[in-house]
Amino acid sequence: MLDSIAVIAEQVAMLYLMMAAGFFCFKKKLIRENGAKQMTDLLLFVVTPCVIVSSFEIEFDAALRDGILIATGVAVGAHALAIGIGMLFFKKEPGSRRRVLRFSVVFSNCGFMSIPLLSALLGSRGVIYGAAYLGVFNIVQWTYGVYLMTGDRKQVSVKKAIVNPGVIGLALALPIFFFSIRLPDVLSQTVGQLANLNTPLAMVVIGCHIAAADLKQAFLDKSIYLALVLRLLAAPLLVTALLLPFHFERDLLLACVIPASAPAAATTALFSDRFGQDTGLASSIVTVTTLVSIVTMPLLILAASL
């Protein structure tokens, strides 16, 4: 067990050191705000689909197929659980703040934060399960998430729920897996090399966002602490407790716990800005939950590994 703890600690430390590099580069103006945005777009529209396709380029495995279905079901349940938790709180907050706070509880950073960690700890198998979780996240985000931010069902875009980088990557990857398709070597290697950018690039971008935030103001807002507890502790602990009686294999269990325990999604700030909500609050929540997750995520991973 001590070996397992050491491996988890080492991998998590590597990720946060990469994040620190992004923080340093932004503070020293080696990376500026526009550069961080361009890297985010590169991650979203190129690297993430490549990660998914590259991970699914393996021989068909019935056990893995069953794991994908389970991970998908867990993702649906985890989002439904978080929606229920969010609705119980923040009732006295003004409309704009209430929407942002609830959004941050429901949606975790299961792309930028979870996929690199899954890759580091579990390899391609973990990324495959994480991709299933990410697919559900994207669909729920562009349906319920839009409704949560706007309060207007007419704003909900089924097209965007389906046509987005995560879902498109999954749509390309699933036939490759189920039919054991082999891409031409030059294409496979190109996709693989682009996929390798995911971990360092994602961590550097997160570090840049932390460096750009007003940390003093973020830690003064008491409502953020409640959102933090719900996002980083209540939701993932409930998911873990509900999964343990099923005795899933370790990799599958961790691949479900890690996305559920991730900090507030970066899209909390993006959606807030897009739909005219409290962007300052959204940015603060993303920053604070990301910083505190440095402690909570490893602890939850260790608890699920025991």
TrEMBL record:
Q: Which domain of life is it from?
A: Bacteria
Q: Where in the cell is it found?
A: Cell membrane
State the UniProt keywords alphabetically: Cell membrane, Membrane, Transmembrane, Transmembrane helix, Transport
What residue ranges are annotated as transmembrane? 6-26, 38-56, 68-89, 101-122, 128-149, 161-181, 224-246, 252-272, 284-304
Q: Which Pfam families match?
A: Mem_trans
Keyword Transport appears in the UniProt entry: yes
Q: What is this protein called?
A: AEC family transporter
